[in-house]
Structure formats: C-alpha cells, structure tokens
Amino acid sequence: MLRYTLRRLLGAIPTMLVIISLAFVLLHAAPGGPFDAQKALPPEIKKSIEHTYHLDEPLYEQYGRYLVQILHGDFGPSYQYRGTRVNDLIAEGFPVDVGIGSIALALALIFGTAIGILAALRQNSVWDYLPMGIAMLGISIPSFVIAPVLILIFAVTLHWLPAGAWSGGDPSHLVLPALALAAPYTAYVARLMRGSMVEVLGSPFIRTAHAKGLPLRTIVLRHAIKPALMPLVSFLGPAVVGIITGSIVIETIFGLPGIGRYFVDGALNRDYTVVLGVTILYGALILLFNLLADLAYALLDPRIRL
C-alpha cells in the first residue's frame, strides 16, 4: 500500500502541473488586466506598477517565475489587496471554511447514514418513502434557497440564532451556515446509503447470517455496514473538498470571510495570483481526498488492497 501511495503522489505532480498551466494561460488570455480598473491612471505609473509585479515580461517568463515561486511555497502578492500575500489571504480564509465545512460534513454523514440505513431496513414502507422524498427535495433545492429560509425561520421569526457574520467563530454563528451547507450533502448520503444497503441486505452472506439466527442489529453493524459504505466512500472523495472549502453562495449570504470571497473578487478584478492560488489549493485537495478515498477502499475491503 505504501508503494501505491507513493506512486499516486508522484502521479499527482504532472496533474497539478497541467492544472497550473491551464489556469495560468486562461487567466492571462482573458481580456483586461489587474490594473485596468484604475481611473485616469497615467501611463508612466501604470508601466511602473506592471514592472514591479513583472507583468511587463513575456508570458513564458512570468510562467517560469510563478512555477519557481510555487516550488518555494509562495503564491505571490495579491494585486487587489496591496501589501498582502496570497498565502496570507488563504491562511485567513481557509480555517473558516474548514470549521464550517467540518461541522457540515459531520452532520451529513451522521444523519444521512442513519436515514439511509433506516430507509433500507424499512424498504417500501412509509419510513422509506418519506425520508427519501425529503432527500430528493434536499437535492433539488439549491443552497441559496435553503439558507434564506433558515435565516427567516431561526433568525428573523424565532430569534434563536444570528443571521450571519463570523464573530470570531462563535458557535451560535456557525449553526445556520453549517445546516445550509450540510442539507444537500445529507440528502445525497441518505440516498446513496439507502441504495447500497438494500443491495447488501439482499446478498447471500446476509441471508446466511439471518439463517444462523443473528439479531438484526448485529447483522447490520458487523456484516452489512462495511460493504454498504463502499459507494459512499467514492462520493466522499470530491464531496469532502466541496463541503470543507465551503460554498461561495453560503459565504456571501452569511457574510463569512472564507476563501470563496477572495476567489470571486479576484476573478472580477483580474487578481491573477489569488485566483491561481485558490485554484491550486482546490486541485491539490481534490487529488489528496481522492487518494484517501482509494485508501479507505482498502480498509473496507481487504480483497482490493493489491
């Protein structure tokens, strides 16, 4: 398994190089520049600023310089937030996304898995149709609709929770964003778990366990749940990245200082280094969690360790 992990990590290097190259070329091919929005900027001053940030160099020299910076762990300076490095912006926003995303992920896994197992055990009954119907609604309704509804109910009407802001990570300010972010993922997990558990419960080894007189709880916890988790693990690879890095819409609605806000502002203002830094971070996280998902497969099913 160690050899496989090292091989995957080495294989991620050319993949990241492709991601960096495509993002770099596409950003610089877009019309406009990071300082074009300045009003009545004299040509001499604009030329001096571009020289300071090496934007007057040929594109291949800028690309080579940026690769060297990345090898040193430096994403470069931000063009929009003067005097600030992209590393500082990511260090400021990423913990916010990790905090809210981790809570949302835990909620989605706990409630989604429980609902899916319950629906599978009560197949074709009201305990199956009702939660799966609600889960379908959770998948169909976008988060930018769920979030205002939660604010209207729990903040405006009941006054139980604050409507937004960060406030240094006060737990009460994390509840509504985490719930809004967790809702669609809970629905996905519930439907995946229900379908997988129904298939596993119809397997020959489960029928054998029933024939031996094992109680249902033992059958589910000891024999059925591990193979039923296999499809869920495949889904969690990219899903963990999406939920931990947060949603741009959720950040905007609740006024969260996450990296999604910097990404949008950077794209609108041609802040190349910020957009590239966030893109590289997303790409690296996707590769990492896909690798972890494959390794989790080996833990759940020893037959595929080779």
Automatic annotation (TrEMBL):
Entry's SUPFAM superfamilies? MetI-like (SSF161098)
Q: What is the lineage of its organism?
A: Bacteria, Pseudomonadati, Pseudomonadota, Gammaproteobacteria, Nevskiales
Q: Where in the cell is it found?
A: Cell membrane
Q: Which family does it belong to?
A: Belongs to the binding-protein-dependent transport system permease family.
Q: What keywords does the record list, in alphabetical order?
A: Cell membrane, Membrane, Transmembrane, Transmembrane helix, Transport
**Entry's Gene3D superfamilies?**
MetI-like
Tell me the GO BP annotations in alphabetical order.
transmembrane transport
Q: Which organism is it from?
A: Solimonas marina
Instruction: Extract one GO cellular component term from the record.
Output: plasma membrane
Name of the protein this chain belongs to: Oligopeptide ABC transporter permease OppB
Which chain regions cross the lipid bilayer?
Answer: 9-30, 98-121, 133-161, 173-190, 232-254, 274-300
Q: Which InterPro entries match?
A: BPD_transp_1_N (IPR045621), MetI-like (IPR000515), MetI-like_sf (IPR035906)
Membrane topology of the entry: Multi-pass membrane protein
Per its UniProt record, what NCBIfam families does this chain match? PRK09471.1
